[in-house]
Amino acid sequence: MQKAYQELDEVVGRNNSVEEFHLLKLQLLDAVMEEKLRLHLALPLSVPHISRQSCTLGRRICPGVPLAERMFVFTLASLMHSFEWKLQDGTEEIKKAIPPLRPGPRGLPVVGYLPFLSTELHKKFTELAGVYGPIYKLWLGKKLCVVVSSQSAAKEILRDQDATFGNRDAPIVGRIISYGGSDIAWSSMGPAWKKMRKDTVLGGTDTTSTMVEWVIAELMQNQEVMEKVHQELDEVVGLNNCVEEFHLPRLFFLDAVVKETFRLHPALPLLVPHCPSQSCTVGGYTIPKGTAVFLNVYAIHRDPNLWDNPLEFRPDRYLNKQTTKFDYSGNNIQFLPFGSGRRICAGLPVAEKMLMYQLASLLHAFEWKLPNDTKPELSDKYGIVVKVLKPVVVIPTPRLSNLDLY
Ligand code: HEM
Q1: Which cofactors, by name (predicted)?
Q2: What ipTM describes this predicted complex?
């Protein structure tokens, strides 16, 4: 508006009226008119045409174009040149159009998309992201849900709008995905949540033992990696000692093995659904207050735009100092096995240490072999946490020189 007034003052001046010869010089006003016509067409569907035979296009263009164009700019220029315009007192500012919620798969009345979900919820949601994009909605019963599968949208939720998305919503989603019956994971933010969140030892044992199983399953599949783990343990701990807590920070390769296992098999691949306390915009789309938001960490961890050969088990990717730093803090939204922001896993420090200690001890003390003629099975099954489909059966053989160490 200010620019249009400025142009009129320069071209017409305050002591004259707008005349036809001024119009050619009013370039900004002309551009305003074109932009208005692009966004708000007077006849958005044109006047229907009937073709009697094959023909070329363009014959029925509006015959009044030259007149309409001149009249429009002339009227607008005269009105704006002569007056300042403002909204009547008490009128609200014209609000910008609220972007819609991104569409997703259609469901059935009442039950929504529930009948189409399998037990592999994270895989189904990833498959749907291929069709509907990185943010889409779906109804689970009467609950509106949004699934987010891109790093940038996850960042908006977990970092930029962390306070808004810090709440939880249990009801129907809780029947599909729950976290060990842990009340804290479902409670909305507030004093009770803060109190519970302090040192609760809930639901953590299942996730930790499941991750031990996944690491062993991956190592059974990757014998070269297993050898490197043993080599590191022999160097750092030695065959005449037991693993102690002070050894853990020096086990860089084992740490990378654990991280790579978390990347491919996050225990909670959709985290615990977050729920915005007010309507907000993510990635240009509206997420209404109270929506259950699933963050598809499984998809982000396997995104080929973020990871080289994402389906390969390659612990080395965490050891290259040149590449991005990966830890469990959730600061790097590319790697989120424990979530991020104010609802990050409350047991993270203890879980990380427990996992490393258990694995280092088991791998240091024993050689592990699969029973004859068996192969490790790396499929998963969805439950409270995502587990190895078939329990891994492995045979241990002592590898320490001194049997008194056992
Ligand atoms: C391998 C082990 C574990 C993994 C992978 C894991 C992962 C997670 C994830 C992904 C969340 C949800 C974060 C979000 O929604 O943004 C979470 C929440 C939580 N975890 Fe863990 N966890 C583990 C072990 C533990 C342990 C050992 C404890 C307890 C000592 C624990 C206690 C909790 C609690 C209380 C919450 C809810 C936090 C809140 O909503 O404020 N977790 N965990």
Answers
A1: heme
A2: 0.98
Q: Which residue ranges form the domains of the chain, and what is each CATH number?
A: 1-39+67-95 (no CATH), 122-405 (1.10.630.10)
* SS3 call for 142: coil
Query: What CA–CA distances, in Å, run from 144 to 70, 101, 173, 217?
Result: 50, 11, 10, 37
SS3 17: coil
pLDDT digits (tens, 9 = 90+) for 314-366: 999 999 766 668 999 999 999 999 999 999 999 999 999 999 999 999 999 99
Higher pLDDT, 244 or 1: 244
| Residue pLDDT, tens place only, 30-42 | 888 888 777 776 6
Q: Which two tokens stand for residue 245?
A: 């807590």
Pocket of ligand 1 (CB under 6 A): 182, 184-185, 197, 200-204, 207-208, 211, 267-268, 271-272, 337-339, 343-347, 350-351, 355
209 vs 217: CA distance, rounded Å: 12
Per the annotation, does 345 bind a ligand?
A: yes
Angle at which helix 348-365 crosses helix 252-264, to 10 degrees, equals 110
Question: What is the residue with the minimal CA distance to atom 1 of ligand 1?
Answer: 208
How far is 250 from 324, CA to CA, in rounded Å? 20
**Binning pLDDT at 50, 70 and 90, where does residue 166 land?**
confident
Residue 386 has pLDDT above 80, yes or no: no
Angle at 286 between CA 284 and CA 288, to 5 degrees: 160
Model confidence at 269: pLDDT above 80: yes
Query: Residue 176 and residue 384: Cα distance in Å, rounded?
Result: 9
- 3-state SS, residue 54: coil
Residue 162 CA to ligand 1 center (angstroms) comes to: 17
Q: How many CA atoms lie within 13 A of 400 on its CB side?
A: 19
CB 283 within 8 Å of CB 150: yes
Best residue among 211, 258, 297, 338 to mutate for probing ligand 1's pocket (most ligand atoms within 8 Å of CB) is 338
- Tell me what pLDDT residue 190 has: 66
Tell me the per-residue pLDDT of 127-142, one tens digit each, with 9 for 90 and over: 999 999 999 999 988 8
